[in-house]
Amino acid sequence: MFYRDERLALFIDGSNLYAAAKSLGFDIDYKLLRQEFMRRGRLLRAFYYTALLENDDYSPIRPLVDWLNYNGFTMVTKPAREYTDSMGRRKVKGNMDIELAVDAMELAPHVDHIVLFSGDGDFRPLIESIQRKGVRVSVVSTIRSQPPMISDELRRQADNFIELQELKDVIGRPPRENFDPATPETAE
Fold first, then answer.
1. Strand extents, DSSP E, 98-177
2. What are phi and psi of 115, to 5 degrees?
């Protein structure tokens, strides 16, 4: 579903992709991910979206963010907000949907194909709008987890659905113990 001469852009919803890969029992090797999509077309941009806990002395996702920033990814971050819920549990909120949607709309006139790494159904209207601009949209997520990590509406709207499990041998690596880069962004 890819053409070698088409201009590609990747939009990675960090927490969503992490959760999908974790549910399938592997971690993403972002160097391999970038190389794979460079082979599939002319990769113009690879965006990675995540919220960061700024008040922590050490964030488990900071090394990943730094590595991505130095290795061809455009990092889009914002401070996560920490709060205590009604049950007294510490929660973190850091939704990056608006930032991703704005960037995708701005870049759409300059690309032929957008690849969205997310299963979030909130992106369905975004995909529909981008398609009206003549841009093809592929979505990478999984239906093989319980429950599926992609909304049915998003999958139906996309021009192409790429099952993350089928990319495991190309972009995956065994999971690391005690590493959870989604910690600051899990509650939305």
1. 113-117, 136-141, 160-163, 172-173
2. -115, 120
Query: Tokens standing for 119?
Result: 């299963």
Residue with tokens 């529909």: 128
CA within 13 Å, CB half, 33: 26
Which tokens hold the place of 162? 């790429």
Question: Is the pTM value of this prediction over 0.85?
Answer: yes
Query: Which of 3.20.20.30, 1.10.510.10, 3.40.50.2300, 3.40.50.1010 is the CATH number of 7-185?
Result: 3.40.50.1010
Q: Which two tokens stand for residue 106?
A: 């701005």
Instruction: Give the C-alpha separation, 183 to 188, whole Å.
Output: 12
Give the domain ranges of the chain: 7-185
Output the six-digit token pair for 82.
């920490």
**pLDDT of the chain, 188 residues: tens digit per residue:** 899 999 999 999 999 999 999 999 999 999 999 999 999 999 999 999 998 877 666 677 888 999 999 999 999 999 888 888 888 887 777 889 999 999 999 999 999 999 999 999 999 999 999 999 999 999 999 999 989 999 999 999 999 999 999 999 999 998 876 555 544 433 33
Cβ atoms within 10 A of the Cβ of 54, count? 13
Q: Which of 14, 20, 10, 3 has its CA nearest to residue 168?
A: 20
Q: Are 49 and 182 in contact (CB under 8 A)?
A: no
